[in-house]
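Below is how a single chain appears once it has passed through the pipeline. First comes the sequence as given, then the structure the pipeline wrote out for it. We keep one example in the README because the format questions we get most often are answered faster by looking than by reading.
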Amino acid sequence: MATLLVLEDDDGIRAALGLAMEDEGYDVIEAASAEAALVLVGRTPPDVMLVDLTLGGMDGVTFIREVRPFSQAPIIVVSARTDTEDIVRALEAGADDYVTKPFQVVEVSARLRAMRRRAASPAPSAGHGSTLLLHDDGPLVLDLGAGVVRRGGEEVHLTVTEFRLLCELASPPGRVLSRRVLLERVWDRDYFGDERIVDVHVRRLRTKVEPTASSPTLVVTVRGQGYRLDTA
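Resulting structure:
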């Protein structure tokens, strides 16, 4: 049984989500504040999280930043905030997806199922047990078998979404993939969100795998077409 953390300060919404997700087969743990949620994550690491952005005390974006160093569990933001800036801030902090309020429980459930499928399914094959990605500051190795990325023997910590995004771009390298294709392959073939989420995750991925994120040489933008992985 997968463990789901619900971080929501509205008692009614938190209770409704908790009951609905228990009916979906999740072991639900609940928190009304980000501070309490951090304690829960340390005590009972969840498999996936639903996080509201507007909270008393520490807000949801800060919680995501605080939890990411010790948890790579997928995070879906559930928030009434619909401004692009708020959504981007949450994604850049480390969220994997978002749903805006008011929402249908069936939508949240579908997003959770898609997230769990991605986390459980094998990474796309790049044609080798591992792929060496050449870098100016040393080799970056994508180890598909182990599901990790290493630089100089040290693991580069990626979220599930970031790892799958890199795998898609690496299978094979040098091929241009559009935002829509990446959205369908990395998030879900039935995903109905918008393409902004791809751009934000590419930016986050670059901060972890590029020597200089502002001047990418590995994950490059092909104007008007999408993204390409260059290994030479």
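The chain has two domains: 3-120, 130-229.

See the next section for the split statistics.
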